[in-house]
Amino acid sequence: MPKESTDAPSFGFDRSNMFEPLLRADPSFGEPWAAFQEEYRDDDHPPLYLALAELARHLVRKLEAGDTRRFGAVFDVVERWHTNGDGYVREAATMGLLEDLQNANLHRETRPDDFVRWLGPESLVWWVRVREFWTLGKPMA
């Protein structure tokens, strides 16, 4: 999992605000996000991993449709989750989103690595670590 740096500035994202920049980057995810919020409105700590799994499916559908015009902005947010998020956000970005994007079962006309070109440097590190974990059994730490 992504580790906290002891010399890094305080985090910018936690579970309460991590989706705000994502929704600005890709407003088309607004409807699935609203449905998620409605479903878990009474939950003090909604399972954001489920929302990230839905985001992964959303992005795969967009990729398959050739609608990638907002991917630069979306993956800029993912990079900021990795670099400016608290421990929960960093782990969720890796295990909740990147891992799901690598799920070959979500891809019919695309490949997981089709997303690599939009990944920032830190996200790419974790992308590779997830892949190596599943293909080689290599620990992610």
- Low-confidence residue ranges: 3-9
Shape descriptor reads globular
Helix and strand succession? Answer: HHHHHH
Kindly report the average pLDDT value.
92
Distance between the termini: 6 Å
Task: Write down the Rg.
Answer: 15 Å
Strand count, sense and barrel status of the largest sheet are:
none
- Return the structural class: mainly alpha
Count helical runs.
6
Task: List how many beta strands DSSP finds.
Answer: 0
Helix content: 55-70%
Strand content: under 5%
Describe the structure.
The structure is a single chain. With 141 residues, this protein is mainly alpha-helical. It is 57% helix and 0% strand. It contains six helices and no strands. Helix 3 runs parallel beside helix 5 (87-101), helix 4 packs across helix 5 and helix 5 packs across helix 6 (121-136). It is globular, with a radius of gyration of 15 Å.
Summarize this structure briefly.
Helices cover 57% and strands 0% of the residues.
Write a concise keyword list for the protein shown above.
141 residues; globular; disordered N terminus
Strand and helix layout:
Blueprint: H1 19-25, H2 30-39, H3 48-65, H4 71-84, H5 87-101, H6 121-136
Helix pairs in contact: 3-5, 4-5, 5-6
